[in-house]
Amino acid sequence: MLGQMQCQPLLISSIIRYAARHHGRAEVVSKLADGSLHRSNYAEVERRSRRLAQALGGLGVKLGDRVATLAMNGHRHLECYYGISGMGAVCHTINPRLATDDIAYIINHAEDVVLFADPFFAATLAAVAPACTASLRAIVIMGGPGEVPALDLPAGMALLNHEDLIAGADDGYAWPIFDENTASSLCYTSGTTGRPKGVLYSHRSTLLHSMAGNAGDALGVRAADRVLPVVPMFHANAWSLPYGAPMAGAALILPGRHLDAPSLVALMNGERATFSAGVPTIWLGLLQHLRETGTRLETVKRTVCGGSAVPRALMAAYEEMGIPIVQAWGMTESSPIATVNAPTEATLKLEPEAALDLRATQGRTVFGADVRAIREDGTEAPWDGETPGNLEFQGHWVANGYFRQPDTAVGDHGWFPTGDVGTFDANGFVRLTDRTKDLIKSGGEWISSIDLENIAVAHPDVAEAAAIAATHPKWAERPLLVVVAKPGRELTEASVLAFFADKVPKFSVPDAVLVVDELPHGATGKIQKNVLRAKYAGYLMA
Ligand code: ADP
Predict the structure, then answer these.
(1) Which residues are known to be catalytic?
(2) What is the reported pLDDT for 194?
(3) Architecture of the domain defined by 260-435
(4) Are 249 and 223 in contact (CB under 8 A)?
């Protein structure tokens, strides 16, 4: 017997329709390229997104076509999120920090037909466009007619602008209804090896993920919040915030290209942000700036941090300012939220130091996803807080394969191998110890590179650190620590090694510390340990 309840497909357009009707005046503030602020609201975003959807139809875009964006966080990007997905096309967010060769590759792989781009990416567009003539029919500059750069595009590729496109449409468009399993957006993972791979989200997965993301023990976004996503909209849909904020009726503050610490602090304070989200590098940079200038974050009440391990020392520093950092873990392939660190009744009783230890873990599995740790013998690791296993996940918003790569299918009820290694404790808290490819195995003992990095960045003079496996004649592998000093500080190997003395077992102390000027970072700001390994794997053999 079926229930007698209405059944409406879970469509992305329903989010912005709801926000326009019930939170129409909630603000959307964007910092433009010239540093000025653009003010809008959900009613306006919905109206302009509908016009955009109609205009895309006019450009011949059909259900299922891929329409790309090459853009920072801004109101026009938000209109693309809703206009493109809302009309049934696929919003393909491209990471502008990728090499132009990779950008051209993914445009061709996705067969994007139209590309929306911020005006300041003109040089990238000029480099990429000639290689993308197979599918790309138009480039839309996200600005008015006066902001279109002089670009010499290949024949058959139109150069348009966002404002004229919207002005040419009318308000008569109604959001179409279609199957909720229709593809809504596409995001290629930066991929530390090989070409980027596409993760193809659906309307259903996006809605369920965003609702779960808004839950109290997850990101907990509420109508009274003013949300500032530093995490880019090209990186796993900015962890759901462009959907979650309008769902909750929270204001959205979009920083554009101004991601340096002074600009972010000014925007957070000026626009009274209560909640923000970004990778550890961002929070480290902000912390340094706050300390140097004696400024404060006046209104931020909490932040969410993930994308790589959040150092305990960083959490402690923000805690002192009264701003808890909530750690979350996931991947582009899990939309990305899989675990979030929120206390349970049992863990609330912990003493402050133990509580911070626990908060520095990746957190508990959110409802709608499942996570497990599988040992080498194929069995699930016990929840003892000690036994590591390869982490796998499944759920309503976990990929079942990569776009146009049938050999990667894992099936809807299969488990997706994350490539991360971790433990579960008795309360279900996951602690990541490594990525499979980053593990250090010394004479049969596993050493966690994340643990070593966490300790290293707590050293008062260390800005950034990476621990890698270096080949060793006796132990097969030994940890090598590569560090960057804070500006104006002197670092020596001896002082860093001394810092480890009472913090880890002797066999985990790095064999050597290399002080370098900078570490290589990938397109999503993570340290490229593969580059370091390629360079320094033989360091201990010399
Ligand atoms: P890419 O590897 O291309 O950067 P993602 O941005 O999807 O892809 O990153 C996912 C990976 O980032 C995870 O598999 C994990 O290794 C790492 N990661 C994400 N969040 C955390 C976290 N809170 N702690 C440690 N590592 C994390």
Answers:
(1) 189, 333, 441, 446
(2) 66
(3) 3-Layer(aba) Sandwich (3.40)
(4) yes
